Amino acid sequence: MSTQLSRDQVRTMMAEVLSAQGKELPADDSASLETIGFRSLDFSELALRVEDEIGDELNFDAPGLRAIETIGDVLDFLEQLQTA
Amino acid sequence: MTQPAEPVGAGNRIITAGYDGPWSGLPGLPNLPPAAAVLVADNTEAVRAVWQAATTPRETLVAASTRVGDEQAQGFRESGLAVVRAGQVEPALTEREPEVGRVWLLTSGSTGRPKQVAHTLESLTTVAGDPPPRTWLCPYATGAYAWWQVVTLSLSLPGQDVLFIEPSELDRWPKMALDAGVTAASGTPTFWRQALFRSGDVLAQLPLEQITLGGEPVDQAILTRLREVYPEARISWIYASSEAGAAIVVHDGLAGFPAAWLDRETPGRPRLSIVDGELVIASSKAAEGMDAAIRTGDRAEIVDDRVLITGRIASDEINVGGSKASASKVRGVLLDHPDVEWAAVRGRKAPLVGQVVMAEVVLTEGSSTTDVELTAWCAARLPDYSVPRRLRVLPEIPIKETLKSDV
Fold it and tell me: Domains of chain A (ranges plus CATH)?
């Protein structure tokens, strides 16, 4: 049985991914991923962290990846994947 | 059929959980057909089968019964070998004369089901000369190539006694070795790391004169650790495979072998070369039916005039978004960290990039290094796609029956 993570919990994990590289996650969800240096590899790591936490594999067949440009997009997308 | 001459080492002492005495005192196995696959429960049963193979005209395969499934046992019977298991004989399904002197080996099976390789006691004997008397520790999986190396050493040279260790005794072998007077030990790097980790104190009391490592890539860190514990011992690294026979032996305490040995023709020695990053060996001790030059499947790299064996080619590459990370390189970087005792690295399926690098490590006792610190250590030494994205710290080294860690 998997447990869904809250938006805040995922946000904390995202901050952890960045802090491991000496970067800080801004408070503003509209900040662009390019500006903060959050790359596809970082997104992959975050997704694996979420998978490990919820004990389930996320289904990435879902559309919408191209729309991810901001911190908010990442959080929305992972929220959406957990409920897919 | 002629009776084989009694082995030179017949008087050497053999110690198993159920026997302590000379090879020549071992009773044979009753009802052992002349061509048989003996699937053994322990080393006592195994050495009895070996003694019979060495002293009577026959064809033999010896393997731990846990390593052979029903389907493979059926295959043995179809190829003309009776299967002997727990005292029961299942006759061969193909009638043929035994190939006298034939010894069949199963490869370690790390890449799938164990393969069957043809040798003789002679082709398995790779140590010659007049070594000093020693009591060897044999912790290898029963019937594996490295196990046969210790067995044939003891059969063919005087003064080479052996203490055999069962898989269930691996945690307490240093104490058993102390009691048996072990002075030489051969094991995989994983075996040595685990011993230093779990039983470092007892290990340091063992009067080891000869330490041999083989069966897996050997890194400088484990060689250096063993040198610290045993400043006087001869530390040898052996590159051997069931298919190629023992091929490379190095005693200088440095990882790998001198690059000057490549492409050199020396009578009686194998010719070593690197082809497309892979170690290729032409050896007179090769198993029968093998090509003159055997592609080992092991990745070889030249670093500072040394040839380093860094891992299996097939399993070493991790594709991270099109960039190729080398699992063995990442593992090497982790093992270079002073607090890392053991590391395993593999690819994990991940969105967007296909795979990411993940690592498991065991830290030295008392270390408080965190996964974040280890990630930073890797990030300072590796391209970003090679830095482990998931890193787990394990409480102890996981180990398989073959004594090779799953790296």
Answer: 7-82 (1.10.1200.10)
